[in-house]
Specification:
By secondary structure, this protein is mainly alpha-helical. It has one domain. It contains 9 helices and 2 strands, in the order ααααααααββα. The chain has a two-stranded antiparallel ribbon. α1 runs antiparallel to α3 and α1 packs across α5. The longest helix is centred in the first third of the chain and has 24 residues. It is globular and about 45 Å long.
């Protein structure tokens, strides 16, 4: 897979997406990404305690997710992800898209992940890391399932009939030959990403 389409001109540097002034939807996606990265790391550590030579890769991923504290999907950390989601849904631009396009919760999560992947192309490295691949990977429904912790089958609701597709907010990246499989790369409309970035 490739890293996906070029980042839209959002007027934001990738560093702005991790600063205190970052849009709430970006923080929400980063928290969910951080949770999944930590879950993957814990699994790696338990599988092979001697494989600690990959610190360089871990450091690179930590840099992309900096300013986002360690988060697990349970207890207070799960509440932090939920609070970030509420803050994202309250942000005027994101809220407008959710309301006017009637996006469901999974569609809002997917849009936030697609937007951060396009606004900060380094996120392809995070997605690759989660798949134990050193290459940057494009966002797919499989990756979204991992990042957001969706239950099996959730991604199947995000096909051609989803609000994201109906409103042309996002869809498979391969144009006219668009496939709707879980492993097909997706992208959000560049104008939508620019709008969300303000």
């Amino acid at each position: 897979m490739t890293a996906g389409p070029a980042a839209p001109d959002t007027g934001l540097e990738p560093a702005a997406l991790v600063s205190g002034a970052a849009p709430a939807w970006a923080r929400w996606a980063r928290l969910a990404g951080r949770a999944r990265v930590e879950e993957v790391r814990a699994a790696w550590r338990s599988r092979d305690a001697q494989a600690r030579d990959a610190r360089g890769v871990h450091s690179e991923i930590d840099e992309i997710l900096r300013d986002t504290v360690f988060t697990a999907r349970t207890g207070p950390d799960a509440a932090a992800i939920e609070a970030a989601g509420c803050a994202a849904a309250a942000e005027p631009r994101f809220r407008r898209l959710i309301t006017e396009c009637e996006l469901g919760p999974r569609e809002a999560e997917w849009l936030a992940l697609l937007a951060i992947c396009q606004a900060d192309p380094r996120w392809g490295r995070v997605l690759g890391y989660l798949e134990d691949d050193l290459r940057p990977l494009a966002p797919t429904l499989s990756a979204a399932t991992a990042v957001w912790g969706w239950t099996p089958g959730t991604a199947s609701t995000l096909g051609p009939g989803s609000a994201l597709a109906r409103w042309c907010l996002a869809g498979p990246s391969d144009g006219a030959g668009a496939t709707w499989s879980a492993d097909a790369p997706w992208s959000a409309d560049p104008d939508i990403v620019a709008y969300l970035c303000g």
